[in-house]
């Protein structure tokens, strides 16, 4: 009762304290991250290994099974989920809830590093990372053009648009989804190879040996210094067609164009993205863990409005998916419900107390206490989400009316279904 006594005997001090709580609460509210649900990540670690050109069954036997057997003995594993597809192996390991995800990831890295020698030389090193819900895309933008192909759209997005969205406040990373990256595709003719006594390994060796760009030292003089490098001479399909594979007994040079068809195309043309039947490329916005989802989405939409007039003819960016719409709607409904609850609490108290003066105390303390709660949320590292708002709603509508301001009267009070009989010395 010390706080209540001070508030009664020193009303000016109580008013100043309430104003300070409101100010700190509003400042904290502006700095809190806004999410739909709390930032709770399960202890999950993923292992992704790329094996270009390998079939799914080869990836399963040469990579997935080897890694699974090695990591099976790590402490705290609940289950292991693996997926093997053409050129790619993905293994997800979920640990028990009390397992530290950083320690689990380190244990997985130690186990995987021991089997690197058993993996194929052509496979990329396994990528091990913690699964984080903050890596989810909060907004997808579609980039489409009626004049450019999908590889050309992908190249334009990677060159000019990714950097534009990456520099926005609160953006952690930008994904390009459904894109097709340019690559030089070589279609070998097995009959032509057999006729010249060559194999696929000979073609691969020639490509690795010739299609390189290396530093060649420097040239120094008394006044100048020049850096020398070996320039790569293979840039177009015609250049690759002239690549020498072998030399016959008669001195004839066997070139790549004699045993294969070379063309510039997409590295993987079996994956594509369409919207309403139109080929397009997706631009995914991933926010920082402490960023406000609504502010990041608004900044991305504003950037789209600035970019669209500068795009080439026939190209446009359209919005496809926006998770901030659901968050904004949910938070709006929570605010509305919270305001209705406060009004109902004040109305019930007025009806039972029968006086405006007695009703003013809860009418002031309820909003002050709710706004001041944001300071506690910021200090504890919480976020604004549906769960925290629900907690504030329950405490604000029940706790305040039951325990804080019932000292103003000595009459029996019935509030929210509870009966409290308190006497006051006033």
Provide keyphrases for this structure:
13 helices; 4-stranded antiparallel sheet; alpha+beta; Alpha-Beta Plaits; elongated; Multidrug efflux transporter AcrB transmembrane fold
Kindly describe this structure.
This protein is of the alpha+beta class and 426 residues long. The chain has four domains: 129 residues, Multidrug efflux transporter AcrB transmembrane domain (Multidrug efflux transporter AcrB transmembrane fold); 88 residues, Alpha-Beta Plaits (2-Layer Sandwich); 99 residues, Alpha-Beta Plaits (2-Layer Sandwich); 60 residues, Multidrug efflux transporter AcrB TolC docking domain, DN and DC subdomains (2-Layer Sandwich). It is 45% helix and 23% strand. The protein contains 13 helices and 17 strands. The strands form six sheets. Strands 5, 6, 13, 14 and 15 form a five-stranded antiparallel beta sheet that branches. The protein has a four-stranded antiparallel beta sheet with strand order 2-3-1-4, covered by helices on one side. Strand 8 and strand 9 form a beta hairpin. Helix 12 crosses helix 13. It is elongated and about 115 Å long. It starts with a helix and ends in a 6-residue tail after the last strand. The C terminus is likely disordered.
């Amino acid at each position: 009762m010390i706080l209540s006594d001070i508030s009664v005997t020193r009303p000016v001090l109580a008013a100043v304290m309430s104003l300070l709580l409101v100010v700190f609460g509003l400042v904290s509210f502006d700095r809190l991250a806004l999410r739909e649900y709390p930032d709770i990540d399960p202890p999950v670690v993923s292992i992704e290994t790329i094996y270009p050109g390998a079939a799914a069954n080869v990836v399963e036997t040469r990579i997935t099974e080897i890694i699974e057997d090695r990591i099976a003995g790590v402490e705290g594993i609940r289950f292991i989920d693996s997926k093997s597809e053409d050129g790619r192996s993905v293994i997800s390991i979920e640990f028990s809830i009390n397992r530290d995800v950083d320690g689990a990831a380190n244990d997985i890295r130690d186990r995987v590093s021991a089997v690197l020698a058993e993996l194929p030389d052509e496979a990329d090193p396994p990528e091990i990372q913690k699964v984080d819900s903050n890596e989810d895309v909060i907004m997808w933008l579609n980039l489409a053009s009626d004049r450019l192909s999908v590889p050309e759209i992908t190249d334009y997005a990677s060159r000019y648009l990714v950097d534009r969205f990456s520099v926005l406040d609160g953006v952690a990373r930008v994904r390009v989804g459904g894109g097709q990256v340019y690559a030089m595709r070589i279609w070998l003719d097995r009959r032509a190879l057999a006729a010249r006594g060559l194999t696929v390994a000979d073609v691969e060796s020639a490509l690795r040996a010739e299609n390189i760009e290396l530093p060649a030292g420097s040239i120094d003089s008394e006044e100048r210094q020049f850096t020398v490098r070996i320039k790569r001479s293979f840039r177009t399909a015609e250049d690759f067609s002239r690549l020498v594979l072998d030399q016959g007994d008669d001195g004839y040079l066997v070139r790549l164009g004699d045993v294969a068809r070379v063309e510039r195309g997409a590295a993987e043309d079996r994956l594509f993205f369409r919207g309403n039947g139109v080929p397009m490329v997706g631009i995914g916005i991933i926010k920082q863990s402490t960023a406000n989802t609504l502010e990041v989405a608004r900044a991305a939409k504003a950037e789209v409005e600035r970019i669209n007039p500068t795009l080439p003819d026939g190209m446009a960016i359209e919005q496809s998916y926006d998770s901030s719409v659901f968050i904004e709607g949910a938070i709006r409904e929570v605010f509305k419900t919270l305001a209705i609850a406060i009004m109902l609490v004040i109305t019930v108290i007025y009806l039972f107390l029968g006086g405006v003066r007695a009703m003013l105390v809860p009418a002031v303390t309820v909003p002050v206490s709710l706004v001041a709660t944001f300071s506690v949320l910021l200090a504890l590292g919480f976020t604004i989400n549906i769960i925290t708002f629900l907690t504030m709603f329950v405490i604000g509508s029940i706790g305040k009316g039951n325990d804080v301001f019932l000292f103003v009267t000595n009459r029996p009070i019935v509030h929210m279904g509870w009966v409290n009989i308190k006497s006051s010395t006033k």
